[in-house]
């Protein structure tokens, strides 16, 4: 497996992303939409593509990773790169915010937005009209693009259709179907490649093994299966815990839910809890119909795998699935997160029995 330095100069680009980067660099489109489900590396690929477009000595592999332009991107100060993200994600990924916005957040006047604000989009439009600082290109990177509402998207539309000078756009989305059709139609679409399970596992072992103790491959398999084979989702899960603890927690989840133990989801955001229960619902339903589970090992499902596959039982599973889908729509803004999770676990226990 290649260990070449990524175009950001921070981490190697995953091999399946490197292959896609080379394909994208051969295109001449002024606007590219990177689409696909979460966890496949949209942000890493988008930043690598922006880096290659701005690099002073690019190659077929991407940016050199050593020039002044690559360094400026790695320290988040490149004057010809505009990153359009929700404020909360900018803070998480260490991208600087407008001084006024940063002051409001520092003084606790409000919480960081989880959506891309129209004011930020207007600033991006103004950025495209400024003279280039160096090189031949200016780049606007929008991620996740589905966080633009219709007003924000419309503010970008005209500039996206007819950019001033050598301006290029990268829109990266984990829910491209939520974008305005007029926005999608102005971009060349690239659907991200889903890596093979063993390829993703090998890359995760390399990434997580750097400067740490050896990672248990079986634990990593559990977490990669829990993430549906999406390696970036595994890395997100491991920000606040280690591999063994996270794997043990996931293995124990089905039995805890069957007991009605809501503490099994303690510390999880409501959206994460709903997603975990949706995966449990999927696998129990699959087992009762004679299919293989996807997110849990069959042995870890324990007593919840048993149950009737009769009409009434399957109807109950269908009702639970629909209730979880409805909960997912409001999971980011629950009235009371604790009560919501307790209700979800209680409902899950009822459905499993």
Brief summary of the model shown:
The protein has 353 residues and is of the alpha/beta class.
Report on the architecture of this protein.
- Helix 15 runs antiparallel to helix 16 (337-352).
- Strand 3, helix 7 and strand 4 form a beta-alpha-beta unit.
- This protein is α/β, with parallel strands linked by helices and 353 residues long.
- A 5-stranded parallel sheet has the order 2-3-4-1-5, with helices on both faces.
- It has 2 domains: 15-191, 3-Layer(aba) Sandwich (Rossmann fold); 241-352.
- The longest helix has 19 residues, at 270-288.
- Helices cover 50% and strands 7% of the residues.
Q: How many extended strands?
A: 5
Distance between the termini: 46 Å
- Total tally of structural domains: 2
Which topology of the largest domain does CATH recognise?
Rossmann fold
The secondary structure category is: alpha/beta
Helix/strand order: HEHHEHHHEHEHEHHHHHHHH
Strand order of the largest sheet: 2-3-4-1-5
Q: Major beta sheet, specifics?
A: 5 strands, parallel
Q: Which stretches of 5+ consecutive residues score pLDDT under 50? A: 1-10
